[in-house]
Amino acid sequence: MKAQTPMHEIDRDDIQGLLRSGYGHHTEACFLLLRIKDREAARAWLAAAPVTSAAMVERPVGTDASIQPEPLPETVLQLALSSAGLRALGIADDVIEGFAEEFVSGMDGDANRARRLGDVGASAPERWQWGAGQRVPHVLVLLYALPGHLDPWRRTIEQQCMAGFDTLACLQTADSLDREPFGFRDGISQPKIDWERQRPARDDAQLAYSNLSCLGEFVLGYPNEYGGYTDRPLLDAQRDTQATLPRAEDAPDQADLGRNGSYLVLRQLQQDVRGFWTFLDGAAGGDTDQRERFAAAMVGRTLQGVPLVAATKASDAAASSADLNAFTYQSDPQGLRCPLGAHIRRANPRNADLPAGTRGIISRLIRTLGFDEEALQQDLVASTRFHRLLRRGRKYGAATLAESLAGPPGAPVGLHFICLGANLARQFEFVQDAWLTGTKFDGLTAESDPQLGTRIPAPDGTPTDGYSIPQPDGSDRRITGLPRFVTVLGGGYFFLPGIRALRYLAAAH
Amino acid sequence: MTPQSHFTVVAPLAAGREGGLRELLDTMNSAPGMADPGNAMLPFGAFERLHFARLVLLGDPTLADVEAYGFRPPQAPLYLAFMGDCDGPARRMLADLSQRAEAGLRQIFAHCEGFDAHGDLLTWMLAHDTPVAANYVNWVGRSVLQIRQESALQRVLSAKVVRRPLASGAEAQAARRGLITFVEAEKQAGRLALAPPERTPSGWRIAKFANLVIVPLAGLIALPVLIVLLPWLVYLLRTRETSDPEICPRPQAEALQALQDLEDRDVSNQYTAIGSLKPGRFRRWLLSLLLVLVDYACRHVFTRGRLARVQTIHFARWVFLDDKRRVMFASNYDGGHQAYMDDFINKVGWGLNLLFSNGLGWPRTRWLILGGARIEQSFKRYQRRHQIPTQVWYKAYPGLALVDLKRNQRIREGLERERMSDAQALAWLRLL
Q1: Partner-chain contact A203 B399, CB within 8 Å
Q2: Number of domain units in chain B
Q3: pLDDT at A377 (0 to 100)
Q4: Is B222 in the same domain as B162?
């Protein structure tokens, strides 16, 4: 029996489970990229597709321990559509244009976007295996299964899809989830979403970094960190006479096509694992300990996931998983423990809206007006809470680092990067552009992300293939000539609809 | 110290000349919107005192917004604006330009109404140099020459410095001394130059001091009147704030694309926006007053690397057009557009509201500084819709951002310091 829920309570039957869970128990997964070949057949399938809701994968929290949780479903299906997919379904243009511009134009659609995301050179959309031009998927079907159940599940779904869709590609994934292909423990840092909506939805400066994000940062139709609602298609009631869609909280007379949905970013990132370790081996002069220290300095964590900023010899061994994500860089402003340009520091700088200072209104005013010189040095990067990503990626290729290193050269190994968010521009694109690709991040000069960087010189010829490791008693140690370790092979922006929205889209004419 | 100044030559286009001018301007670029520094029309790179310059057609796609107040859209001319930021007096810069790029400038301005092909070019440009209501310079006194020389210094030192842990303060001192000797030798050999700062012009000093004193004095005189009027002014503000229409539709996809095509080709970008003031004298006077205050703050307070909390703006200016019915804002900033806007919202939303909330259609503010730009989605649509493509944009130091300029400056200062403590010497080495 369901508990009494306040009016505010969200409809977990309407939300796809991926927003709640990374399906860690479902170690097997594959992602189908489909193109619509028969619109009616495609609609018919979408109208009944067995999409797994958040309610179906939820483990009760804080309730009576005697209540047995429902068993996890053996198989899971999640579904997302691209803007090309919506057009192919025959959705009206003015509805599509209610979505974010980035989604409408697509990841491949614009040379400026490619410049910003670092999709240039070997990663340019025109070289992608999928995701550009005629190879833009219409529908993305994510299949997950408990061990041993994926193959029949995939066959069942492919059978169902055959009439309506062509399969552009089926992205395979590796079963082991905890280490990414370079060998690092992965997926440690995730924002905590305020599902209970306890965080007040109003526009207030936050003076401390918090890992808790307003629901509206990741789920459309709810207030975000600014206390506002992110743009999404709101429809006049007469376009939804069956009342398939929920009404909008901020416009109760309109149907909210976005509510309980999110945007999904998928990028196939090929990783040159051998190249990475060979390069570091050279930089370390063959010293294996040093090689591993360099690797950790580039990532900002040890291979075991211990954050460098918090690492001591004792904690390294005793690190519990709770500790691994409970830190900020406030005690390390110069990057002496964790370099400023380390991957995890770029991807999540963990800072507040104002640089740190003493309490009190005068101090706050001084920092707000920019009169505190010391605070300004820590203020090149700020307000992390508006730029968080909920990551749901899976790796592909060899299951372990040892297998990658032993495998044939050029064997496909990498990450099907997936992240969810309500605002593509302010979340994924911002982080990828300003923080990861940016060569001036936090005052650095001539380097982009040590793992993801394109190494392509700036337009004026400045190299971007360095990496600086600050040291307390001398000039930065500098590794130069970094090759490219990650190449983008495909990518796309998708809308992960609420389940009612999916049924609406399947029926809309 | 060499103070910076600016010019803003604005002139209406002659009828039927727009298409031709656009084509002409495109020939000056090496990539969309990016000026070729050596282009034959106006070889920007040859002018060593020029920091930034742009040529932009001030087409205003939002003129009809005033219909929200029941007014008919005004007939506004299509202007060409030629703007620049330079070292030393703008007059000298314009004279230099009109001398050394006369043919090209004549060819450009021949598209403007009333341009006399046989008249004096400099006189014409000076006559059309429009006053700037408020102007911001990131670092008053930092010249192009200095930026380039210090960048060369940083490159050389960064390649030369020994990157190993130093055992003692004495070692740090020795390392620094070694680098100083090395730089001296490079200078002797003519491979490096570090020109000493020029003398600060006394005229500029006097004008600055006069401004420093006169503005507060004028304020002091006006203060009693303002205090008396305050309740009424607050009433006027609040009634308007609660009823002024918000006009923040999505920009057209094509218009947005036209802007993005020009962006992210360097570590810095340009931004030009235009819009009408809200109708009525209240907003006109309020904005005039606020721009005087902002200009004052930029002249006397925010002269060293920051505009309040924002540290990524090289130069910015606000210019009234059409008898203060419209305003143009132009800036040069580091990073991408999204980051620039997020910085605006998160760091100086209050400051943005103070000025731009007097613009027609701005997202609703409360008490002049709250709300407004913090209504993220409305603000982002608003600013993109008011932004216009900058046809030609020049930056004298591609690849360099303000973080570089500041650090390079500190490197040079440290190099020229007579004496340093061990800790200072180490901190200096760590800049390299």
Answers
A1: no
A2: 2
A3: 87
A4: no
